[in-house]
Amino acid sequence: MKFKVLQQDLLGPLQAVSRSVGIRSSLPVLDNILLALEGKKLKISATNLEIGIIKYVPVDASEEGELTVPARTLVELISDIGQAKIEFEGVGEILNITSGKFKASVNGIAASEFPAIPLGKEEGIVFERETLASCSSILFASAVDEGRPVLTGVLTEVKSSSVDFVATDGFRLAHRKVLLEGAPKQFKSLIPKKTFEEVLKIVSEENVDKITIATSDNQNQAVFSLGETIISSRLIEGQFPSWEKILPAKAATRILMDKEELGRALKLASIFARGEANIITLTSGKGRVVLKSSAKELGSQENEVEASFEGDEMEVAFNGKFLLEAVANCPALQIMIELSGPLSAALIKPVGVEGLEFIIMPVRLS
Questions:
Q1: pTM here?
Q2: Domains plus CATH for the chain?
Q3: How high is the pLDDT of residue 36?
């Protein structure tokens, strides 16, 4: 293997791929990045067996070949060389790197030991960049605890001409519905939250207009194609909750509030809620909502927020953290909260943003 490339063209892709390296893995080759020449492009790959990333970089190639080298060592070397042309030559299991007066030999591992990263079928679902980026506002609702693996993923379901992205941890739920052009085929997968975070990171770093999601031949991997980047991820197995049944059928109370004012009031209330299971009580009435919280060792607070109100006056208690995160992820100036009862799920919507909603289960007050 022999090729030349500018440092500034190689560094970004190397850094992006290295995020998926299996650090401190029991398989030494998972600590490595695979470099493989395919024609005039360098294929850079890394995987931790859960998620794998492939990037293609145009290079001046003179001799094909492939080799894996330690990711951390390679990234540090290329970072510190500075902007210059770098020559690479693979000899056996050693990668020789030359740039100006600098020379280095890096010990590698044969490419034959590197796990294959599954690729998708030719057919897939094509999303606009904005469609996929819009699901960033629901990721917070996924579970962190691995005790129920199905809740650590994002349900991605295409039906007819729309796609539903759904995340839940069992106490709250976030749903994003986006219309798709044309009439695509059906698609349903439970994709790990970590994969979505990595895909969104790549989307923000690269100028790609469309993203394709497909499944691997054995149907247990989701494969994202973003321009010169491919991300392959293990799918989560199991039955996702019947989320549509959780959506409140009708509201007894509707409250319209300024997002910034509500967010500020929730932060103040959270200071006194930390010691009492994060409980914040909302009491709605004509033209206002009163937020209360207290802690035995700290004291208590009460705050009044202006609101447009219709329906029944009601007192409902919530986990303040859940409420604050839902409000923070509403991309709007105003927020609508719909309540069905003191012990029924609350529906939170950003005003003027179609297809985005959050469900929070209330807390029972003793």
A1: 0.88
A2: 2-113 (3.10.150.10), 125-244 (3.10.150.10), 248-360 (3.10.150.10)
A3: 97
